[in-house]
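Example for tutorial group B:
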């Protein structure tokens, strides 16, 4: 099991959610950890630390996290050098938490949309196994609520 340190305190992996073969994926802030995922993140700025919880069971897998703010791809700044890479390699049974920030200007006076996707595939290759290999993805589409208004002007971001 891997652990990450943040301001001299230990960040523990989430409790195990998997039985058998599969991938578990969750996103939370320090304040929302342990709460049900509602699809809304509140009071998020460009200095907010988010956490990606990933659990892997059944096979060794390569994974990649990709983020989109207001429908435009943005870089994610990983706060762990071990995972500051395009391809995250997780062995069978690993349960990790990756702290990261959104590398974008996030207005505290506006609401935003945030889509984060986890893509993964096995480390087995079709040429070696003579079997079909698969790639998958999981995504969360969050509403970032930085104001009391519950509206979000979708056309503003599509047409600029």
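The residue assignment follows.
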């Amino acid at each position: 099991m891997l652990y990450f340190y943040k301001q001299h305190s230990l960040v523990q992996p989430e409790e195990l959610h998997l039985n058998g073969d599969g991938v578990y994926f969750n996103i939370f802030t320090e304040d929302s950890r342990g709460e049900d995922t509602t699809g809304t993140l509140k009071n998020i700025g460009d200095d907010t630390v988010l956490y990606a919880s990933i659990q892997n069971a059944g096979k060794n897998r390569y994974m990649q996290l990709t983020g989109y703010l207001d429908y435009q791809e943005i870089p994610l700044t990983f706060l762990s050098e071990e995972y500051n890479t395009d391809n995250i390699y997780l062995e069978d049974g690993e349960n990790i938490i990756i702290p990261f920030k959104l590398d974008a200007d996030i207005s505290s006076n506006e609401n935003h949309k945030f889509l984060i996707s986890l893509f993964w595939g096995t480390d087995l290759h079709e040429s070696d196994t003579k079997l079909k290999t698969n790639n998958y993805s999981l995504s969360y589409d969050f509403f970032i609520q930085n104001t009391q208004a519950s509206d979000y002007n979708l056309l503003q971001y599509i047409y600029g």
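Helices lie at 126-129, 154-159. Compare this with the pattern of hydrophobic and polar residues in the output above.
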